[in-house]
Amino acid sequence: MPSARETELLEAAYRYVLTHGLADVSLRPLAAAIGSSTRVLLYLFGSKEGLVRALLARARADELALLADIGAGPGVVARLWEWLSAPAHRPLLTLWLEAYARSLVEPDGPWAGFARATVHDWLEVLRASQPVDVRDTPAGLAARTRELALLRGALLDLLATGDGERVSSALA
Amino acid sequence: MPSARETELLEAAYRYVLTHGLADVSLRPLAAAIGSSTRVLLYLFGSKEGLVRALLARARADELALLADIGAGPGVVARLWEWLSAPAHRPLLTLWLEAYARSLVEPDGPWAGFARATVHDWLEVLRASQPVDVRDTPAGLAARTRELALLRGALLDLLATGDGERVSSALA
DNA sequence: CCTCCACTGACACGACTGTTTCAGTAATGC
DNA sequence: GCATTACTGAAACAGTCGTGTCAGTGGAGG
Predict the structure, then answer these.
(1) A14 within a domain of the structure (yes/no)
(2) Based on the structure, what is the number of domains in chain A?
(3) H/E segment holding residue A137
(4) What's the sign of the alpha-carbon dihedral A29, A35, A37, A42?
(5) What is the spatial distance between Cα B122 and Cα B72, in angstroms, rounded to a whole number?
(6) Range of the domain at B64
(7) Which entry of A14, A48, A127, B171 is 20 to 30 Å from A54 by CA?
């Protein structure tokens, strides 16, 4: 389990990568920005890969907290979109997309399985929001796959164009 | 306009990045893999950024050729999905997603505007396939935005899980 | 007091980065 | 034949990368 200093630095590093991206982060600029040193980061996280892994887990924690918060039941898609389209969440979602793409290109290393895991997480939430009688039918699976696709595709559009009006009204 | 040797090397480099990714490509391994040298790549493309820009343009040419080939009219969405879900196109689409994410994280440099441009391209194709009487209405705009979101989201799912069966039947 | 432990600073190592310099070669146009 | 052009090879440049080494801190527990 992490020490106090470790979580403190992880939090600072997390804020850093939210604005600078995770793909080409390097230890020295990161350490300088959060008032630490490469020596300490390496001491606490073992290696750069360990740090990236911790940051990815940190981002995923944010995502899982959201999903737990959204809850289940009718109207999930609308509630999810409301959260996804909030301007305040854009850095997190850009980071999310970056990790997603990276895990596809480089299936090894700390990114491994990120994309697959996140698809599974969201599908599970959508499943929990379906009526029990369709939940385990092929039609139910198709329905939530379609809902997820719609949300993710709309998110891609929004992140690229920033045109929240057009995308949101398309989802209505 | 590019010389013969330039397009030849660009083609080889393009094949290389399709399997190795574009984000963290570096000149020496790339040059070695395609039987060239950093000296020549730099001579022909000016800089690494020039090379990346050329590669991005090359990938975009593939995409635009597809869109021209798909044509317009009813059934576009199905035809587009057929193309997107073809296993042979997976490397290209992974590269596409990588460039998309990168252009969001790093709005400057050779990646600039890639995501926005590709959204525009596809929306235009979908627009051309709409009946003339809805093409310029808010409802038409919303409809093609939704179609695009569905396709892109389904693509994300497919690239992560490889579960073509589930995703394709969700789109039917 | 003294030991242990979490943490930190300064520095160097080898590997790799994009790029430059200087040197050629081979073919083309006059 | 000669100059120009397109391309290529070898080596070096300064910089950054992740990581390791060696030396300390400061505070908490016995």
Answers:
(1) no
(2) 1
(3) none
(4) negative
(5) 11
(6) 53-171
(7) A127
Residue A69 included in any domain? yes
Q: Do B149 and A159 make contact, defined as CB atoms within 8 angstroms? A: no
Judge whether A1 lies within some domain: no
Half-sphere exposure at residue A70, Cβ-oriented, CA atoms within 13 angstroms: 26
Which bases on strand D have an atom closer than 7 Å to a protein beta carbon? Answer: 6-11, 16-22
Other C-beta atoms lying within 10 Å of the C-beta of residue A98: 24
> Which one of A104, A119, A160 has the shortest CB-CB distance to B104?
A160
- pLDDT tens for chain B, residues 1 to 172: 788 999 999 999 999 999 999 999 999 999 999 999 999 999 999 999 999 999 999 999 999 999 999 999 899 999 999 999 999 999 999 999 999 999 999 999 999 999 999 999 999 999 999 999 999 999 999 999 999 999 999 999 999 999 999 999 999 9
Does residue A33 belong to any structural domain of this protein? no
Helices (H), chain A: 4-20, 27-33, 38-45, 48-70, 76-84, 90-105, 114-128, 132-135, 138-161, 164-171
For residue A31, give the nucleotide whose C1' atom is nearest its CA.
Answer: C8
Q: Are A47 and A27 in contact (CB under 8 A)?
A: no
The amino acid that residue A114 corresponds to is: F
Q: How far apart are CA A36 and CA A43, in angstroms?
A: 12
Which of B101, B106, B170 minimises the CB distance to A101? B101
Q: What is the pTM of this model?
A: 0.95
Helix axes of A4-20 and A38-45: crossing angle, nearest 10 degrees: 110
Identify the closest residue of chain B to A116 by CA–CA distance: B160
Verify whether the Cβ–Cβ distance B157 to A152 is below 8 Å: yes
B33 touches strand C (CB under 7 A): no
Q: Do A152 and B150 touch (CB under 8 A)?
A: no
